[in-house]
Design brief:
Radius of gyration: 19 Å
Order of helices and strands: EHEHEHHEHEHEEHEHEHEEHHH
CATH superfamily of the largest domain: Aldolase class I
Keywords: Detoxification, Flavoprotein, FMN, Monooxygenase, Oxidoreductase
Family: Belongs to the nitronate monooxygenase family. NMO class I subfamily.
Helix content: 25-40%
CATH topology of the largest domain: TIM Barrel
Catalytic activity: 3 propionate 3-nitronate + 3 O2 + H2O = 3 3-oxopropanoate + 2 nitrate + nitrite + H2O2 + 3 H(+)
Distance between the termini: 23 Å
Largest sheet: 8 strands, parallel, barrel
Cofactor: FMN
Number of helices: 12
Number of domains: 2
CATH architecture of the largest domain: Alpha-Beta Barrel
Shape: globular
Strand order of the largest sheet: 1-2-3-4-5-6-8-9
Number of strands: 11
Pfam families: NMO
Length: about 350
Amino acid sequence: MPNIFGTDVPVVGAPLGGGASTVALAEAVTGASGFAFFPAGYRDPDGLAADLAELRRADIEVGVNLFVPDREPVDRAAYRAYREELMPEAAVLGVDLPAEPVADDDHWSEKVALLASQPAAYVSFTFGLPSAKDVARLKKAGSMLLATVTTVEEAYAAQEIGFDAVVAQGSEAGGHSGTHDPRREITPMDTAALTRGVIAATGLPTVAAGGVDGSTRVTELLHSGATAVAVGTLLLRTDESGASTVHKDALASPRFTATALTRSFTGRPARGLLNGFMKRHEASAPVGYPALHHLTRPLRVAAAKAGDTDRLHLWAGTGFRSARTGSARDVIRDLAALG
């Protein structure tokens, strides 16, 4: 399937929320003839607009990724019980946790308006599908729209409301699962198998995401029919990454030997390095994003400052052992087998 991004290298830098994606990282990925997506999640509209303006001034075209707001509020009783369970963890780090759930839509309307008035060539969505009205608005602005999907059924739904392409995210992917239903159990789904299934069912151009640990995997995913392959975890330790030193070091630490999916940090399933917090709290964590994201944020910020990897979310995909230091340009070139 032809590369819909029109780049020489069919490798896409995934949008890495929480500060890991930077303007410098996008520049490095595109400088290696790949394509980069920039995260709008967790960003205020003004900050996002400033970064996109800086990229435009440098004549760098990027895609923009939006988090679709969850529409179901967290159960307040479950939230309070989980907060009570986490208070001893917070006490270790000397922080308090929000007593009541914090609800927000991540400035959804403002960000859609920004991208309608200052269009990006590509806009992707994670955590669900936007309204048909928002789809029409962004397509009218000239953007190609991509939906993150984790099942063939989700891909069908995206096709039905007019999406141009999809990102097939296998269960090996690091960070948040893009599942449209945060309550469903995330069963193992190989990225190549998901990619083949989505293409067979919809015929849509499909970006394969998850489990990338080297050029052999990239080749395998392209042979599965993918238009391009997204990489995230392998960019986290690069010079241009904005990931914390604690996170970068953990990816290379022999202390961590496995990854696992967890709702314990944010109320949505996400894959990270398996640590003590996940082991202690996964079984009792309720579904409830972004309420749990805001609940654990003071704890996570303090843990990062203290270098406490036992209580920190360390997002990582199954290929994390292949993440290395150096320039992201070299990582992209190596993944494309360009040496």
